[in-house]
# Entry
Amino acid sequence: MSAMSSRLRELEEIVGEENLLTATAAVSEYQLEGQMPVAVALPGSAEEVARLLRIASEAGLSVLLRGAGAHLHLGVPPSPIGVVVSLARLNRVVEYDADDLTVTVEAGVSLGQLARVVGEHGQMLPLDPPGPDSATLGGIAATNLAGPLRMRYGEPRDLAIGLRAALTDGSVVKAGGKTVKNVAGYELGKLFVGSLGTVGAICELTLRLVPIPEARAMVVAAAEPKRACEIAAQVVGSRLDISSVEVANWDALRRMRLSLPVTTGPEAWVVFVGLLGEREALARQEQEVRSLVSDGCARLDGVDADEVWRSLRGAGYPGGGTVAVCLTVPMASVREIVGLVPTGEQWWAVARSGEGRIYIGPAAEAELSNVQQRLAALREWAEEREGSAVLEWGPVEVKRAFPVWGDSLSNLDLMQELKGKYDPNKVLGCGRYLPGL
Amino acid sequence: MVDKKVRRALEKVVGRKNVLTEPADLLLYSYDSSTARGQPGAVVLPASTEEVSRVVKVCARHGIPFVARGAGTNLSGGSVMLRGGVVIALTRMNRVLEIDVANQRAVVQPGVVNLDLQQALSGHGLQFCPDPASQKVSTIGGNVAENAGGPHCLKYGVTLNHVVGLTVVLPSGEVRRLGGKAGTPPGYDLVGLFVGSEGTLGIATEMVLRLRPLPEEAQIVVALFDTLEAAGETVSRIIAAGMLPAALEIMDRATLEAVEASFPSGLRTDVEAILLIELDGPKGTLDRQAGRCASICRELNARSVEIGRTPEERERLWSARRSAFGATARLSPAMLVNDATVPRTRIAEVLREMQKIERRHGVRIAKIFHAGDGNLHSNILFNRDDPEDFKRAEAASAEIFRLCAGAGGTITGEHGVGAEKPEYMRLIYSAEDIEAQRKLREVFDPLGLANPGKVLPERAGVTEGDA
# Structure
């Protein structure tokens, strides 16, 4: 028996025969960017995950953690994958304390599943990352992705108040807890959230919830590009209680196929101001926003507002063979978006004005060398402002030509040391995150 | 005291007058606002990141432990050197370096006093949300090291949620910049790991803070209750009803009496609990919420409910709340401060048990709660000259920790573990959990010189006072 097959036997003993896939047909469903895993394990508990990780670590078998696979496009094309550890079977809501506005879920619970459970109690998890609602909370935590609501509610790092993680030494550790305020010990949870599965496997999460606001609306205004950015900045700087402020250019609007009650065109960009709250308060705020905007604007309510919000949310998730880059810069720099869109070419761009983020990409499949050059210019722009540019979506060729996470990353040595402490044999992550993590 | 060679090396960095070794000076730096005491070998007052770095390098070279210190308002002994070493006082680094209105960020040095920053910001219509009750004296450096809270973190989150960048001096003396004015950089959340690390991962010498526009309006609902549980239950109901006030604070009778005696502000002292509910938001949006809160209070048999709408009225009530901690000192020369935290659905039940503990141990506990967060400050009064009394207070405190841990809570919501609570970490974390945390510390501080003896329990420790 080869070394590999004896390892697989060990993995099988942990999860049971039916939960270890090795047949080519079954395994090929889990291939990622040309890499075919040797096996796929579907553990049924955090303890099983930890045992799998320990064996993988001892054997030097590389591990790709996976939820629903909704965000596996994020990251450097993987090095060879030993075993995919799918957390799909960890799909229970462990504890829901509705009156405390907290919920504890296993990592494989999907965004949609959680929304249904807590929605029955008039509550929601205020996270709207790009991508489908089949995405798991473990995956969302691992990627730290968030959407327009980030401006008001923060990102997974803010909303995850506790977690349980399986480590490569076979232990399952708890970090944080179930209270919204807790300073006992280190914020170890912060190490796992946003680590792209490179230090341990998040198996369980405790999250803060919020009540579903009584009403939601979106004020939409069209204006000449510079003016649109100015309006957005004014709204962000106002004392209103806004939940999101975004600006989209003409190509972005066309790509989203939105029909809006304002007149748009190449020289008329659109500002979207999201409002959430009590009905009366909302009406008042809408008036205030309108007076700030002064240009032609309209209000969308209920499902119409939702549809727009869903499109905006998807900015970083274009699908297909296209490219999307997320630029993160100080808030005020976002208005420079006007000069960033390459002239004479069709590039879409959506700016999250309230959080200093711009999603941008070519509207059509462009030639690789051209795209690469443009992306490099965008990255240079962001880095000059002490920000970053992450290639959140792109075909493998683009990812190979343009470093996904950046090329002048600071404090990499500290991060590598942290990685080394928790994953000494470097089996987690398959090289998809920053170099050496 | 540190030896001559070390002293000279330190003087070379910060100048002679900024190295203190006189016994009287050392005594001044031997305590904070907790019960912990420990005399340092020297106190150094650097004026820049560069100087902090060089001071830390001297410590590293000579294997001397060190701790950073701001105003010394720490409530868990975090800023006291337990076994000698160097106190690095950051009070000279007290400049607001930049208020960047367009980016809603401020860049400050660690010695800036929280309230001074708030005042500098309010002219721009901005605020730094964390507002610990000690804000008149406590420094931003200390707030960051402890991940401080305050009444308004119910709505706006704790310090961690408002720090986006740090310049830090690692325990090796190396200077690093983590994060910055732009949002989350790719990679592990180093800022998130550093905030709240209680000076054990290094010293933050510059911080980039997230600011928020000041709310346009605020209102305060004041309800008086005949039982503490009823006030606690009201808080749970308000949260469950889906409202998110800016603050939900409870003071018990003992605290009210102390406040009225020290700073008379017309509060009634013949009730068992007072609940302050602050609401904030855009103009004209608060009346309905205030009305809903008031009716929940009445449903829970509040003896009276008032709504304060003017800034003067609010300030009067808030100053009573902010002075509560200091005023409690009037009741007793010393107190043990416990800030255990529980899920908000368990508040009433925990308060009932807490009163039993009070009776059982024959101690008096003044209670001031950030109730909306489930953060229960029970100040256990004792007489420092009576060792038996201190033992009773400690025993009561230990029982409160166990009670809150058992209710799914934690041993500290905002004061930190410090020197007082490392052993109690075992109530909420397993040995494996603690080892995983220790690894983090080892990456930053392999020599174990940064504020030793704090946060994590010793590997083979025996729980003190936890009999």
The radius of gyration of chain B is 22 Å. Chain B touches chain A through 89 residues (CB under 8 Å). The first helix of chain B runs from residue 4 to 14. The longest strand of chain B covers residues 217-225.
